[in-house]
Amino acid sequence: MANDLRFQVVGEAFKKKPLDVKAPAERPCEYFGKHVFNREKMYKYLPKDVYDKMVDVIDNGSSP
Fold first, then answer.
1. Cβ(36)–Cβ(44) under 8 Å?
2. DSSP for residue 41
């Protein structure tokens, strides 16, 4: 009985059509930085001193 259900599920999966997903034009590291670990997330998850240093490095090019 369980095998029948498994084969039905696999059969349904094969009927699915792939979605058309457009890859971002920018480099993955830029996309990640803008949309995943942006300043808002850094502020939320990093200690204040680390966040301040990170922003200084990004904005002013100072050495870490």
1. no
2. H
